[in-house]
Amino acid sequence: MTEMEKAFKSLYDAFARYSRPQRITVCPCCTKPEATSHLTVGPLRELCFEDLADYSFSAMTTQGSVDDFRYVLPRLLQGIAEEPYSYNPEILFGKLRYANWTIWPVDEVSAVRTYLHALWLRGLTSFPLGQQLPAFFEIETLLASIAQTGEALEPYLQVWSATRTEEADAHLIQFVTMFGAEFSDGRTLHEAFWTKAQSQAESLRKWLLRLDTLRRIEHSAYLLRNDGFEHLFEPALKNLQHQSGTTES
């Protein structure tokens, strides 16, 4: 059994205390009454993930309660780790913070954290990311999704530092190419979903400007792909070196 499969099992075990609701209430102004009827028919594991997309977008705001969300959560988290997703994955992960998941029972919190770490490791060891996680566009998307839960990013960045594989290095080169310029003038990522995760974005900046991270970027530059964005890499790296006070080796 893989770490991801173990994480799925932990989720289903921990949230098994929530029985299938007879009905899921919806906001009559925003949602058709039958919009959630498919969620209350059949075993949870057999629900089609594609059919859960609209619910995942509206959960707890216009569709259902926190306990309804906890009932469906294992299937949602399994689905987004295995299949394409109709919306930005950050939306689904943000629902965890909306539901105050960190004050749930210990086994539920532990199951979610185990899942997040397994998902992160799967992402780091798969490049391009879509080969294993088709719901996520690139490693920044996965980082932003984890950040939306409210979790600190330091443990995940430590795993990135410790994962010395070509795939993890390729993710780093791609991230620097696409986002390295965002860290100029003392700034960090601050747009889109990062607006609600500024403490995590600051942690990301500190990690990115560490000497060992910068050296790793320099040594992995051979992994830069000719994908039409390669011209962004060199100025992005120079910007990071400038921000950290180091010079190019």
Instruction: Tell me the helix content.
Output: 40-55%
Radius of gyration using CA atoms only: 20 Å
Head-to-tail CA distance between termini: 43 Å
Q: Using DSSP, what is the number of strands?
A: 0
Report what the structure shows.
This protein is mainly α and 249 residues long. It is built from eleven helices and no strands. It starts with a helix and ends in a 5-residue tail after the last helix. 36% of the residues are buried.
Describe the SSE topology.
Elements lengths: L2 H12 L38 H6 L7 H17 L6 H10 L7 H19 L14 H10 L5 H9 L3 H14 L18 H11 L2 H9 L13 H12 L5
Structural descriptors:
mainly alpha; single chain; elongated; 249 residues
Question: What is the compact description of this entry?
Answer:
This protein is an all-alpha fold.
